[in-house]
Amino acid sequence: MSLRQKWDQLGVAAYNIVLTFVPSHTVRLGALRLWGASIGEGSTISRGTTLFDIDKIVIGRDCTIGFRCLLDARGGITLGDNVVLASDTHIITGRHLVDSDTFEAVFEAVSVDSFAWVASRSTIVGGVSIGRGAVVGACSLVRTDVPAMQVVAGVPAVRRGERTSALDYSAKYRRLFY
């Protein structure tokens, strides 16, 4: 194992075992940046969120990530500006090929464009892009791309409507000690 791999594993362990529970946004975001995450100004990640492959996470400005989310970035995760991932949201970029004799793993990136809102307890799987201003309803499973401004919900997530907002807001939200 290379020194870089050891450093990355140390970061994942330190963050997920201890630092994710520290009631300071500054400490948590500073640690993630130390281990290679790119996090824009004004963004926040609430306590209890678990991250894998920290150096493959790119988060834009003024994003809000809720409590107890899972960001499995082994395939890469990119969030635009003003993205909201509500509590208990999972982004999982890895999967196994069920017919593989060797239980082969596949990793595919996930991107969530600016002003998108992913409601609580939703899951987004690898290879999916969520368009600008799109909304994913609570408890949804997103397995295919979601176009800009589209509202989807369900298991699997299907089109439920279209968003008409001018998207003239900031998703920045930071509660003290959260």
From TrEMBL:
Any Pfam family: Hexapep_2
GO terms for cellular component: cytosol
Single GO MF annotation: O-acyltransferase activity
InterPro entries: Hexapep, Hexapep_transf_CS, Hexapeptide_acetyltransf, Trimer_LpxA-like_sf
Keyword annotations of the record: Repeat, Transferase
Protein family per UniProt: Belongs to the transferase hexapeptide repeat family.
Protein name in the entry: Acetyltransferase
Lineage: Bacteria, Bacillati, Actinomycetota, Actinomycetes, Micrococcales
